[in-house]
Design a protein that fits this description.
Layout: H1 2-21, E1 45-50, H2 51-54, H3 58-67, H4 71-80, E2 88-96, E3 103-110, H5 114-122, E4 128-132, E5 135-139, H6 146-153, E6 156-161, E7 164-168, H7 170-181, H8 194-199, E8 206-211, H9 218-223, E9 235-243, E10 246-254, H10 258-274, H11 276-279, H12 283-291, E11 292-296, E12 300-308, H13 309-322
Antiparallel strand pairs: 1-2, 1-8, 2-3, 3-7, 4-5, 5-6, 6-7, 8-9, 9-10, 10-12, 11-12
Helix pairs in contact: 12-13
Length: 343
């Protein structure tokens, strides 16, 4: 009897340990990959961002420090109670790119107050509500018109739990809820995308993998004759990281036609060379071009760069200087006396 009881207890402990080690959907994420399991199975691309560590980059921190002086930024924090500099941990986005209509859904892992967010949304108008399998889906109010209003109507928001919010197109948002509740498989069961995910540099601050529909690059190929072989690219991997005060970037297009991939690499090298004319007037552009490397291999063509943070600051300053400045409106007093009925 004692042996049976000990054996039974041992089995129970093993089973308990097994389930405890399984990844859990939802809750506070420890790493960016934790959010990946919440994205729907049929997405064609994923983009994952380590927001918290990204805020530690000096250039990003400087930008956020400037932003916090803006009234809109202060108003956002005041309304929602969310400070992007400290409260957001990770963001994962799933994309469907086939056909005329592109759809997307994002899951953000953060510290937030649900009631404060709902109150902030309600200040802009009436918030729509609908129930989906016990989860309330909210439609934010729209104050825009025309095409922008139609896009806003496609946006839906759902609070998955105390640390995760999902937002996106209606169908994909419902799919996220299904995955979260365990009734449907997530992107980890996508047999086309997951080999790319395994290859991706997932410790980067920003990384993503994308399946490229055959028709997606035909328009680009038609508009830029030098890139006429772009349809040879079947998938793309990207990674952006920060190491030793350098921003490290890598964009890799993969395919099966080695000859066409090499031609794409040669064409990109040619376009890079044309940029030298701009570099004569803008030394920063020349410095940037010198940092870019283009390589190709049997199944890939890749653009990579290691950009010193000082160079990024120069480029940011150059862009800010080139941006058109808003001219203040000047009200001029009328030179002619107005009729009595208009005074």
């Amino acid at each position: 009897m004692r042996k049976t009881a000990v054996f039974g207890l041992s089995v129970l402990l093993i089973v308990t340990a097994f389930w405890a080690c399984k990844p859990k959907a939802g809750g506070v994420a420890a790493k960016s990959q934790d959010l990946l399991s919440l994205l729907p199975q049929d997405v064609q691309g994923v983009l994952v961002i380590d927001v918290q560590n990204g805020m530690k980059i000096e250039t990003v921190a400087d930008f956020m420090n400037k932003a916090q002086e803006e009234e809109e930024f202060k108003e956002f924090i005041g309304k929602t109670g969310i400070d992007p500099r400290t409260d957001i941990r990770f963001l994962a986005v799933g994309l469907k790119m086939g056909g005329e209509k592109q759809e997307g859904v994002g899951v953000v892992n953060l510290d937030y107050d649900r009631e404060a967010l709902l109150a902030a949304m309600s200040k802009d108008g009436e918030v729509g509500k609908a129930d989906y399998k016990g989860v309330t889906i909210y439609t934010p109010p729209s104050d825009s018109e025309g095409e922008e209003e139609a896009e806003a109507e496609e946006m839906r928001i759902a609070f998955l739990d105390e640390a995760n919010i999902a937002a996106g197109s209606p169908a994909l948002l419902e799919a996220v809820i299904d995955v979260f509740q365990g009734s449907q498989p997530g992107v980890t069961k996508n047999t086309e995308l997951m080999p790319l995910v395994r290859e991706a540099k997932k410790t980067s601050l920003v990384w993503g993998v994308f399946l490229v529909p055959a028709e997606a690059l035909k328009e680009t190929a038609g508009q830029v004759p030098m890139l006429g072989n772009m349809d040879a690219i079947q998938s793309v991997l990207m990674a952006i990281d920060y190491k030793n005060e350098n921003v490290v970037m890598e964009f890799k297009g993969k395919g099966t036609d080695e000859a066409k991939l090499k031609q794409i690499g040669d064409a990109l090298t040619g376009i890079k060379g044309l940029g030298g004319m701009i570099a004569q007037e803008k030394p920063e552009i020349g410095e940037l071009l010198n940092k870019i490397e283009i390589t190709s291999g049997k199944d890939f063509v890749m653009i990579s760069a290691v950009l010193p943070e000082e160079l990024i600051k120069k480029l940011a300053a150059m862009a800010e200087e080139a941006a058109p400045k808003a001219e203040p409106e000047i009200f001029e007093e009328p030179t002619e006396e107005l009729p009595p009925d208009l005074q």
